């Protein structure tokens, strides 16, 4: 009996080995199929992600400044190309490897124009919003001509000379003037006079339409060095004020006339001008965009040459001082244009 069982077991052993081999083969095939699908899915995921990143970065460029996307060398081992179709659709197409011939697209709700379409895997794609169009290029972009700040008249007005002699008072007057214009855009705003009040406060008397108001302007000293700026006086408070009888009011030239003749930059124009340019951080050549929600305040800054009224622009860790009034070309001394920290330089 025992001999028969041993004979039967020996006879079934090859079948067991064969069954095990077939089962192992099936598992191997199943594993290969699953792995193959995973690799295909990786290509799909990376291609869709790239198309989405291109579209989202293009949309982000509407906020101003130069934006970039780093292109991968391949998509999960497959070669690819990118293109813009119908002026708003970013298309990623697989050329060779897995998912060859497949296309993936993403749409941006804006008009896109290709400046240089020589996009290379491992390279970069640059985006810049200029003149209502998103420019896309394989190389850094120079914006199309767009004059935001310009001088209209050749001779500077009286307020220009006033700002040279009394830069803090000029900064306070300009801050109060544009604050009144913002509050009463439909009324004629005229600065009548100013009075010094306390250490860092200046009172500004303004006629708005048929009424007269007084704005108290309060500045704060700041000893932080920003480039060539050794210290600054930054306006932090603008508030209505009830005047007392013991004030000594002094007349001043009209900032309104300076603004209308192009000799005074509004905060909106300065911010628009800064956002229309492409900036590079000097320390590492990183591209920096000035956001639309940057904080802008009137200030007066002191350099080794003189003190000037300026606009202070802040966003993130960045501080920019930009000229409040353009500098007359016939001046014998240097004027103030731009200083920043971290140090920035314009690429375009």
Characteristic key phrases:
348 residues, 34% strand, 9-stranded antiparallel sheet, alpha+beta, elongated
Written account of the structure:
This protein starts with a helix and ends with a strand. The chain has 2 domains: 19-137, no CATH class; 158-346, no CATH class. It has helices at 2-60, 158-165, 167-183, 255-260, 267-275, and strands at residues 66-70, 79-85, 89-96, 103-107, 112-116, 124-130, 133-137, 189-197, 201-208, 211-222, 231-240, 250-251, 279-281, 287-288, 295-302, 307-315, 318-323, 338-341, 344-346. Strand 13 and strand 14 form a beta hairpin. It contains 5 helices and 19 strands. By secondary structure, it is an alpha+beta fold. It is elongated and about 120 Å long. 32% of the residues are buried. The strands form 4 sheets. A 9-stranded antiparallel sheet has the order 12-8-9-10-11-15-16-17-18, covered by helices on one side. Helix 2 crosses helix 3 (167-183).
Short description:
The protein has about 350 residues and is α+β, with helices and mostly antiparallel strands.
Topology record:
Layout: H1 2-60, E1 66-70, E2 79-85, E3 89-96, E4 103-107, E5 112-116, E6 124-130, E7 133-137, H2 158-165, H3 167-183, E8 189-197, E9 201-208, E10 211-222, E11 231-240, E12 250-251, H4 255-260, H5 267-275, E13 279-281, E14 287-288, E15 295-302, E16 307-315, E17 318-323, E18 338-341, E19 344-346
Parallel strand pairs: 5-7
Antiparallel strand pairs: 1-6, 2-3, 3-4, 6-7, 8-9, 8-12, 9-10, 10-11, 11-15, 13-14, 13-19, 15-16, 16-17, 17-18
Largest sheet: 9 strands, antiparallel
Radius of gyration equals 33 Å
> How many β-strands, per DSSP?
19
Taken together, the total number of domains comes to: 2
